[in-house]
Specification:
single chain; about 450 residues; alpha/beta; Rossmann fold; Helicase, Ruva Protein, domain 3; five-stranded parallel sheet; 16 strands; about 45% helix
Length: about 450
């Protein structure tokens, strides 16, 4: 959603001019020309302004008289007050609440700069403050649904780990098993729940950009660095840094990551000064890190440092009993989002859901059910939109059922690594050897694609 700005100003022409100006800058602006309108807007659950610009010139000092109550309704908003001739006493009182005070006539350029700064402060407050209470209620051990033994054991382990201090933890499992969900549960139930949770997908960025995002940089430290950037380690100070797909991180950058974790200090690119941090590390990977160590693409010392605790997530095929609980919950979620009313699942649909291997795990399940709900026309889950392929040919390791599909037997005749190699070969074939396009098709970074190709001795020709 766009950044939200509330304007409280009874001078309609000036207020509309400000509204138009900020709207052009991609703000979602609400205008209140009276105190009553401001109350109505702030009481809407769906509108929580990041910044409030309020004119102190409302009749009868309305803003000053009701400031405490207004602030309660907009707990995480930053206030900027506009005034013509506020007294010294008023200004001293407002400084307890205000991000800044600005005199008339307005300097729009200065107002824009101050508003952007106020936005950054508001966003940080929402991460670090009581705003996380909503997340804490959303992410509890019970949020990992399922009645299978595997799901129950995982919930028990999460509850145990939530009660102890954790310096580092690794979550392993196939793509789509819920590694991100488990990380969020552990953060919001753990001892750092009042601190920020900062997430980064290590496979989504090239090495140089990933380094800049992690450690930050000073203005002018490299071409394109026009301003100072606080890195994710600093942003996560006092909380959790969640590094997803850490197995895809460049090995040279791994050394710098290890040092930061060990020393609890970081140095921005282009800076000579070290900054103290206090961060717990959650790492997740679908890569076998021990195998990656043997192949010399992952540091053994980093592996031992981040694996103080390890959680291995089961695949959905290992806990199919949980489909009985997961499917109705997911359908209900998409019913609400799409204003649909699916409430019936035929025996035929259940047979297909339970027979399917779910190589994409819960993520694939969600995608399948979302498609079915969106294309439904009544209460019945539309069987034809499941589109689950169960066909297996006995005498071939893989059969192309269409130009863009592979059918992989799961009867033990083919290893997981061979499946990965076949997917890479197919993607390269479909993209006529274009590595970047093939990586995009497989939803991985170009660097990860290159690493996988080298692993299986594949060429783009």
């Amino acid at each position: 959603m766009a950044n939200r700005l509330l304007l409280i100003d009874h001078q309609s022409e000036d207020a509309k001019a400000l509204q138009q100006s900020f709207s052009k800058q991609q703000w979602h602006v609400q205008l209140a020309t009276s105190l009553e309108q401001a109350y109505d807007i702030l009481r809407k659950d769906s509108y929580e302004p990041h910044v409030i610009i309020a004119d102190l010139g409302l009749p009868d000092n309305a803003i000053l008289k009701h400031l405490d109550e207004l602030q309660t309704l907009a707990e995480y908003a930053e206030w900027i007050f506009l005034h013509q001739d506020a007294t010294t006493t008023q200004q001293e009182h407002l400084h307890d609440f205000a991000f800044d005070l600005i005199n008339y006539p307005l300097d729009l350029a200065r107002l824009n700069i101050i508003t952007k700064r106020a936005l950054r402060t508001s966003l940080l407050s929402r991460i670090a403050g009581n705003y996380s209470g909503k997340e804490q209620s959303k992410y509890q051990p019970a949020s990992f649904f399922g009645t299978s033994e595997a799901a129950q054991q995982l919930r028990q382990l999460i509850e145990q780990l939530s009660s102890v201090p954790i310096s580092a933890l690794t979550i392993t499992g196939e793509t789509g098993t819920g590694k991100g969900l488990v990380a969020r549960i552990l953060h919001h139930c753990g001892q750092r729940k009042n601190g920020p949770l900062v997430e980064l997908n290590c496979a989504a960025l090239p090495k140089d950009l990933l380094e800049s995002q992690l450690f930050g940089h000073e203005a002018g430290s490299f071409t394109g660095a026009t301003k100072k950037l606080k890195g994710l380690f600093e942003q996560a100070d006092g909380g959790t840094l969640f590094l997803d797909e850490i197995g895809d991180m460049d090995i040279e950058l791994q050394a710098k990551l290890l040092k930061a974790i060990e020393d609890q200090k970081v140095r921005r690119l282009g800076s000579e000064k070290e900054v103290d941090i206090d961060v717990q590390i959650f790492a997740a990977t679908s890569v076998d890190l021990e195998q990656a160590i043997n192949e010399q693409v992952f540091r053994e010392d980093l592996y031992h440092r981040i694996s103080v605790f390890t959680i291995a997530l089961p695949s959905l095929s290992q806990r199919k009993d949980d489909l009985v609980e997961l499917v109705p919950r997911i359908i209900a979620e998409f019913n609400e989002k799409a204003n649909k009313k699916v409430s019936e699942i035929s025996d035929s649909s259940w047979e297909k859901l339970l027979a399917y291997h779910w190589p994409g795990n819960v993520r694939e399940l969600r995608n399948v059910l979302e498609r079915c709900v969106l294309l439904s026309t009544d209460e019945q889950l539309p069987d034809q939109w499941l589109q689950l392929n169960h066909e297996v040919h006995e005498h071939s390791t893989t059969t192309a059922v269409s130009e863009h599909q592979l059918v992989i037997p799961i009867d033990g005749t083919i290893a997981l690594e061979q499946v990965e190699k076949l997917m890479l070969e197919k993607a390269l074939e479909l993209e006529e050897g274009n590595v970047t396009a093939a990586a995009k098709r497989l939803q991985i970074s170009r660097e990860t694609m290159r690493y996988r190709m080298k692993k299986f001795d594949l060429s783009s020709g």
